[in-house]
Structures are given as structure tokens and as C-alpha cells.
Amino acid sequence: MAKVKPRVKVPKTAEVDEVIEIKTLISHPMHSGRAVDGDGNLVPRQIINSFRVSFNGTEVMSVDLKPSVSANPFFTFPYKVTESGTFDFVWVEDGGKEYTKSKKISVG
Amino acid sequence: MQTHVLKMISRRQALAYLSASGASMALSGVALAGPEEVAARINDITGGAAGDDTLIMLDLPEIAENGNAVKVAFDIDSPMTAENHVKAVHILADGNPEPDVATFNFSPAMGACYASTRMRLSKTQNVHVIAAFSDGSFGSASATVKVTIGGCGG
Fold first, then answer.
1. How many CB atoms lie within 10 A of CB B123?
2. Which among A60, A68, A71 has CB closest to B96?
3. Chain B closest-CA separation from residue A26 CA (Å)
4. Average pLDDT for runs of 10 along chain B of length 154
5. Looking at beta carbons, which residues of chain A come within 8 Å of B121?
6. Strands (E), A1-108
7. Residue A63: its chain B contacts at CB < 8 A?
8. Do B111 and A76 touch (CB under 8 A)?
9. Which positions in chain A touch B31 (Cβ < 8 Å)?
10. Measuring CA to CA, how many Å separate A95 from each of B24, B99, B109, B147?
11. pLDDT confidence of residue B5
């Protein structure tokens, strides 16, 4: 399988109480379990089924993904920063394998 | 002459094989969710409550050339305080093999409520977005997306 690579865009600095925008992308084929390969065999389902974001250890948002989400799942969402800290992003694949990425932000 | 006859037969066989496999694909491959199943799923989420259809700004293309990646974005006007925030947003599609596309779980810490992602649409269909608010009420929005090339891999 192609290499699964998570990417995240978070501003490096922000003002207190500023609502920042976070963009995330993970390169993943999201095999829905319905497509066939070149030999006519079904490609077994293998998707990212869960995506979680936490800030300084507290979960702030999560997404449950189904096979209808496109390959290379991409999300944008806001977050209101009140203090400096670290975002932790976790993508969970079918079978329980996790891909993680962390980003620091300094506020004030 | 002999080879010519053989060729004719093999071509017929190939055609017969092709049409047979096409028929079997049509039978086995496409069991779509359909509007009824999506309506039942929405009923599951809301418990039968009617959603306010003025609260969600839904950003969907009218025509999607490629059903493999259709951008879907929503923006919900909410103060996102502990007392009044959006708890979850469900994205559902009524022409895909299963009704659910994605469920977003939000917290007041986000300060605003919007998000975007990309989804697969197998054909022209309706997309529904259901938002669950912290006070137990619901918001809904839906739109039809025309899909030129389906995105279910089959």
C-alpha cells in the first residue's frame, strides 16, 4: 500500500481568543470494499474510520468516517485558541492502526 | 476457414460472457441506500423531531463532474458556548450504498461551527446535513447534486 502520510496546517502564532482555521489531509486510498482491481478481484475494505483532534490533552472534535468519504480524507474546521499548546491529531484505520501528527501553537 | 469459424465462436462467447458479467455486476454491485433508508436514518438521529431548515448554510456544487471527490461544506450560526453549541453534524447521502457519509462531533472549544470535507457520490442524488444542538433541537439542510461520473469504484 502506498505510504500513508498525514499533513496538518495550523498557524504558528495567534492572538488570544482568535478563531483559527485548521486544515488536515491524510494520503490514504480509503478502499470502500466495493471497487475491483485490475484482475477483477474485490479490494477489501480498508478506510480511515475515525479522526480525533485534541488540544493540550482534551479532545476538541472528532469525525466518524464511512466508506463514502473520498480517498485522501481532507478536513477543515475552526478552533478558538485561548492559550499556547499542542494539537494532537489521530487518524484510526480499520484494524486499529493509528497515524498521528502534532502541531504547536503559541498564543499571545 | 476452420480458424475463421473458431474466431467467430470465440467472439460470440466473449460477447456472451461480457453481457453475462455485466448483468451480474448490475445485480450484485449496486444496492443503494435510497431515500426511504435515509429518511429512516434521519428519523433515528432526530427521534422524529422536525429540523429547522434555516440554521445551516450548506455549500455543495450543483453539478459534480467527478463523483469521487465532491466538496461538502457547512456553516452553522452558533455561539458555541457550553449552554448552546452544536454537538454533532451528520452528513447523509441517499444514492450511495450506505446512507452515512461522515459524522462530526464538536465541542464548545471550537468557537465557531463550520467544517468541510470531500465525499464520494455514486450518482445524482440528495445530500442531507443534520445538526444536533446541545438543547436537543435539530437543524437540517439538503441539496441535490448532479453527478456526471459516479464515484463508487465499480
1. 18
2. A68
3. 12
4. 47 52 45 83 86 88 92 94 94 92 95 95 93 92 89 58
5. 68
6. 5-9, 13-14, 18-27, 48-55, 58-65, 74-81, 85-93, 98-107
7. 102-105, 117
8. no
9. none
10. 31, 22, 30, 32
11. 44
Q: Rounded to the nearest 10 degrees, how much is the dihedral formed by the CA atoms of B75, B77, B79, B81?
A: -60
Predicted structure pTM score: 0.83
Q: What are phi and psi of B82, to 5 degrees?
A: -60, -35
Partners of B141 in the beta sheet?
B129
pLDDT at B13: 55
pLDDT at B84: 93
- Residue A40: count of CB within 10 angstroms of its CB: 7
The Cα of B55 is separated from the nearest Cα of chain A by a number of Å equal to: 18
Give me the pLDDT at residue B153, please.
Answer: 57
* A107 residue type, one letter: V
Note the maximum CA span of chain A: 57
Neighbours of A106 (CB within 10 A): 12
Low-confidence ranges of chain A (pLDDT < 50): none
